[in-house]
Amino acid sequence: MTATPTFRPLTRAELAQRVARDIPEGSYVNLGIGMPVLIAACLPPGREIILHSENGILGMGPPPAPQAADRDLINAGKQPVTLLPGGAFFHHADSFAMMRGGHLDICVMGGMQVSARGDLANWSLGRAGEPPAVGGAMDLAVGARRVYIMMEHNSKDGSPKIVERCTLPLTGAGVVSRVYTDLAVIDVTPGGLVVRDMIDGLTLETLQSRTGAPLRAA
Questions:
Q1: What pLDDT score was predicted for residue 46?
Q2: Which residues participate in catalysis according to the annotation?
Q3: Minimal CB count within 10 Å: which of 67, 112, 163, 210?
Q4: What is each CA distance from 45 to 31, 49, 61, in whole angstroms?
Q5: Pairing assessment for the beta strands 184-189 and 178-181 based on DSSP bridges
Q6: CA distances, 114 to each of 99, 121, 203, 204 (Å)
Q7: Are strands 113-115 and 83-89 parallel, antiparallel or unpaired?
Q8: Which residues pair with 181 in a beta bridge?
Q9: What is the number of other CB atoms lying within 10 angstroms of the CB of residue 218?
Q10: Sheet holding 113-115: strands in order across?
Q11: Domain residues of the chain, as ranges?
């Protein structure tokens, strides 16, 4: 009898470390609200990566120790942050000018759905009466040179978040460059979804069974 392959999905902290590993030296990077903010604590020491926060920070550092938190220095998710030497904070409008003007190399955001062609849905579950809460996600999705999505591969009910076509309200059409999940790293290419990396013990067949769009190996 053949044993069933076993694997352990990445924790959120491990996923943040995986994304941080791929961010190139010298990049200007926006970290979205939610899981992406964990990346700030995972960047390798000595690598110059300039972090941007939507509410008006450039040169954002890792989270402070609880006793050293400055209540007036927070990220877009209202969490305490630090400011690295040379960092700055500025008006919200200036921050959006950076986002819309194509000055960010990478934006890392959370996702609810990503389609096979790189469409992104990450701001609404489409429920009746749900208040709009897109924030700056649309601006980031179209303004950043590359959009990385960081999310669990499947919803709590087991349904895939990577799908052939998004059924939730879109944040942006064809904007996603790469998806990092707790199971794999997947590139969005003109030829379809390409699996660049998988966690140990996971096969492409099993990954495909958990994905709602066709995959192919790199």
A1: 84
A2: 54
A3: 67
A4: 18, 10, 11
A5: antiparallel
A6: 21, 6, 21, 19
A7: unpaired
A8: 151
A9: 10
A10: 120-121, 113-115, 162-163
A11: 12-35+99-217
Using CA atoms, how far apart are residues 132 and 127, in angstroms rounded to an integer? 11
Q: Tens-digit pLDDT profile for the chain (218 aa)?
A: 455 568 999 999 999 999 999 999 999 999 999 999 999 999 988 889 999 999 999 999 999 999 999 999 999 999 999 999 999 999 999 999 999 999 999 999 999 999 999 999 999 887 777 776 778 899 999 999 999 999 999 999 999 999 999 999 999 999 999 999 999 999 999 999 999 999 999 999 999 999 999 999 99
Give CA–CA dist 72/62, Å, rounded.
Answer: 15
CATH 3.60.21.10, applies to 12-35+99-217: no
Phi, psi of 13 (to 5 degrees): -65, -40
d(CA 64, CA 73) in angstroms, rounded, equals 10
Contacts of 116 (CB under 8 A, 6+ apart): 162, 163, 164, 165, 188, 192, 193, 213, 214
Q: Which residue in this structure is represented by tokens 């990346």?
A: 39
DSSP result, 45-68: TT---EEEETTTEEEE-PPPPGGG
